[in-house]
Design goal:
By secondary structure, the chain is α+β, with helices and mostly antiparallel strands. Helices cover about 30% and strands about 30% of the residues. The protein has one helix and four strands, in the order E-E-E-E-H. It holds the Pfam family DUF3006.
Length: about 70
């Protein structure tokens, strides 16, 4: 469980069940979010974007080293 503790400028300060705190940018949160709201957080891997970044980095290195 994650609880919105407060807002500081462009950040939402989130409290966890064990009372640790972390910040999230307000820009990625629902606009109607308010202090005291309980939020769910889900993280997933974007495999396609990861592959594209890896391919681009490999291409840049290959061009740099002339391979």
């Amino acid at each position: 469980m994650y609880i919105v503790d407060r807002f500081e400028e462009n950040w939402a300060i989130i409290e966890t069940e064990n009372r640790t705190m972390f910040k999230l940018p307000r820009s990625i949160l629902p606009i109607d979010l308010k202090e005291g709201d309980v939020i769910n957080i889900q993280v997933s891997i974007n495999s396609e974007a990861t592959k594209q970044r890896s391919d681009k980095a490999k291409s840049l290195l290959d061009n740099f080293f002339g391979e």
